Amino acid sequence: MSAVIEIEGLRKTFRSLRRGRRVAVDGFDLRVEAGQVHGFLGPNGSGKTTTLRALLGLVRADEGRLTVLGESSPERLPRVAGRVGAIVESPQFFGNFTGERTLRLLARAGGVPTDRVYAVLEQVGLRDRADERVRSYSLGMKQRLAVASALLKDPELLILDEPANGLDPAGIREMRDLMRSLAASGVTVLVSSHILAEIQLICDHVTIISRGRRVAAGPVSEVLAGFDRHEFLVRADDLGHAGELLHAAGMGVAGHDDHLVVTGVDDATTVSRTLGEQGVWVRELTPLRPDLESVFLELTGAPTGPGVPRQTEGPTPAAGRDLSNADESRGTRTGGDVIDLDAQGVDA
Ligand SMILES: Nc1ncnc2c1ncn2[C@@H]1O[C@H](COP(=O)(O)OP(=O)(O)OP(=O)(O)O)[C@@H](O)[C@H]1O
Question: Which value does ipTM take for this structure?
């Protein structure tokens, strides 16, 4: 499999008088292969956006080797920019323009034939609403419009930073369906998120970042399997007796109100046979598989919401995340824009 994105040893430190030195990304590695829908998962402030910005040449890396579609970034990024669509943070559009006009302008600015506008409107499911003003769009529709703008170039690689952020469940479902259909059409997708269930539903591969470092990577099923403790939930009539029998047979047993959790068992029949042979009949025997949420919590030690401690050196940073005047590398951090690599070039 060929690598579409390769990051090795990425390091990025931000410096400010007020907050001191802040290591945002610390020797991070990422590999995305062609055809993958790759989830880039991490708690708030773990370094996802910084990594994507470095990859797209929007922030200068201190160290590391980055390549996109085989070309090193940022030096040779312009060579492949036409094959990459990217959205980093929430895009801003003119509310007075219709969706179609917005895309027409972007297509013209990017030298893309305007018949692509109808194709991408169809692709993101906005064809019927294309003549309505963007101001009347829901957040989910605006996000889909952003994806449409990134698709104008018919990219091979789509990079989306938190596309489901702020969406309601219906919006999340629409975004999920859209990403699935893009993947089915052969686009490689790298999607960052702290919404674990989404990553588990959409992505085939995942890289988990915590405090700027990679803590897990691989096919979602393999990452999960690595955390499978071979646990079963057991319900039986005489729980106390059942627990004793299972314990005597060498299994780990934890008692709960109305069930037992048995660990260290490879096969459910071991449990049912051990109990059945002693006349204790099992009413329920359910394997307890790890989900990405429990794996994520174990690896990052972090809740999925805000307020996660940052990796810092120097003075203790203020709590919470205030980036409004914080971008020492480029002046002010812009409040989210559709990144057109052709138009913006690179910040080398
Ligand atoms: N321009 C900047 N100036 C100073 N510090 C920054 C800047 N950008 C990011 N940081 C800090 O670097 C760390 C990583 O931030 P980053 O935005 O990359 O994380 P994230 O995983 O994308 O978080 P979120 O999910 O909240 O968007 C944080 O501590 C953040 O405060």
Answer: 0.96
